[in-house]
Amino acid sequence: MACNSGQGCGSGEGCGTNSCASGSPCSREDDTVQLSSAVKPGICVKCKEEPTSEGFELCCTCLHTNLVSKFKTAVNKNSLVTPADHVLLALSGGPGSRVALEFLREIRLKAQTDLDASRDQGTRVFGLGVVFVDEAGAQSSSQNSEHNVEEISSIVVSENERPVPLHIVKLQDVFEDKDLRSSPGLDEDVGTRSPEERLQELLGNVEDVTGKEDLVSYLRMQVLQKVAKEHGYTKVVLGVCSSRIAARAIAATAKGQGFSFPADIQYVDSRWPVTVVLPLRDCLARELDVYCRLANLKTVSIENTSFSTDKSKSINEISQVFVSLLQEQNFSREYTITRTMGKLKPFDFNTPPVGPIEVALRRRKGIQTPTIAANEVPDLLCPICSAPLDTRDFMNGGAECSAELSNGGEVPFANDRDDVLGSSRFPDAFKSTCCPSCSFQIIPKKGIKAESMYKILPEVMKERAVTNIRDRQSWMRSRIQEYLLPDDQD
Ligand SMILES: [Zn+2]
Ligand SMILES: [Zn+2]
Q1: Which residues have CB under 8 Å from 438's CB, separation 6+?
Q2: Ligand nearest to the CA of 380
Q3: Which of 265, 262, 297, 259 has its CA nearest to residue 278?
Q4: Which of residues 469 and 399 earns the better pLDDT score?
Q5: β-pairing, 127-134 with 268-269?
Q6: Is the pLDDT score of 402 beyond 80?
Q7: Is 355's pLDDT higher than 80?
Q8: Which pathway (predicted)?
Q9: Burial class of residue 410 in the structure, from the number of CB atoms within 10 Å of its CB (0-12 exposed, 13-18 middle, 19+ buried)
Q10: Is the pLDDT assigned to residue 413 strictly greater than 80?
Q11: Domain 81-346: which topology?
């Protein structure tokens, strides 16, 4: 078949498809597609032989070549997966993660075959596992849970002669952390409640529909991290594509997450204990969707966790609908949004790791490797959503902290973790270390709901707050230190 010739898409030039393999979309391609389609309707614009279906410009083989090429470029350019890695793919059942699973399997199989042929004892092939987070516990009616799990299992365990391990976990597993001690402020009755009841109560305390949805996604990431850590994985792969990023960008703008948003849309995100990577960042939802159907890849449509029948109450939902509408009219609009977002400055923890080969090359070329640790995690991340905190917010939250400092010099508050958690000031201190978006949309305004919320939060979030409070106090102390005279001076 002509489409296997390796021409066109792999070249990185305008290739007549939605996007070329260079990783960044080319704007001139839309015209190419329309022109070529005009010549031979119903025939693939790339190989010009195979028929197309579903009104898509490419045949299945060419679409595969195109998507794999973008996937591999993202992976190789940014060292997303190396032979030493043990990769955990978060499978949602949707086309993005489904395609990611297929490509990771393909690349792994090819690497294994090459390795077997070369009999090179020193090299290895990356490990692969799949995780599915069952979110049914977040809703009061969870009747589809079993069915969803069966469907997901059938995808992972299918035909393949080299099956990969599948971890099925529940959203409420975030409350079962063996590594962490239980908090002093935890009520007896909270401690005896089942994780599912705690999850329901936690979400019940959040009044805003968008806030509830976001909290579910933050809990999901914590559960993914938990599984990855417990099973020794070194990378977590998410099937987030360009279209999802575009919708998130609109939503994040509305939620006031402008400062931290660039952190969420890069190929690499190493602010987590296990680094998160997005190899499908340059693929469109439409391409992935069509490919799944053309290649007969089974997907499972699991309804999003929804907390209101009125979709207009969710910023996430409205943004999604808005971007889909733009997309229907002109599909390069999604790229316009993501390209604009791509101009935002990422954080240090978004820098791809520099491998030994790269270091050697740079040395030969006389390029200095930056001395700052590339993956240095910033001091403060929001305890709920893990967004990096703006120094200005940090300063605002520090007002209370400086009052503590001025009150007797020594900090009585953060010396001991249990003192911090047990303190009656913990709720206020906790809120002061959260990002503005979480403070506004998730944390209840004072009262019974607020109190109950702090008691019920997962330990991992409370621990982060304690770390933030400590770091802030030592930071404040260091700031004051500048203005103090040394001890030996009168
Ligand atoms: Zn073709
Ligand atoms: Zn936050």
Answers
A1: 214, 382, 384, 385, 387
A2: 2
A3: 265
A4: 469
A5: unpaired
A6: no
A7: no
A8: tRNA modification; 5-methoxycarbonylmethyl-2-thiouridine-tRNA biosynthesis
A9: exposed
A10: no
A11: Rossmann fold (3.40.50)
Q: In which region does residue 185 sit, left (phi positive, over 0), alpha (psi from -120 to 50) or beta (all else)?
A: alpha
Task: Report yes or no: 322 and 129 within 8 Å, Cβ to Cβ.
Answer: no
Q: How far apart are CA 59 and CA 45, in angstroms?
A: 8
- Residue ranges per structural domain of the chain: 1-77, 81-346, 391-481
Query: What is the rounded CA–CA span in Å between residue 89 and residue 236?
Result: 6
From ligand 2's centre to the CA of 58, what distance in Å? 41
- pLDDT at residue 445 in the model: 82
386, 442 contact by CB (below 8 A): no
Which residue from 213, 280, 292, 282 is spatially nearest to 240, judged by alpha carbons? 280
Measured from the alpha carbon of residue 443, the closest ligand is 2
Distance 436 CA to ligand 2 centre (A): 7
Band the pLDDT of 490: cuts 50, 70, 90. low
Ligand 2 centroid – CA 66 distance (Å) = 37
The pLDDT, as a whole number, for residue 238 is 97
Residue in the structure block whose two tokens are 């109560």: 201
Whole-angstrom distance, CA of residue 86 vs CA of residue 69: 22
Please tell me the predicted confidence (pLDDT) of residue 307.
Answer: 77
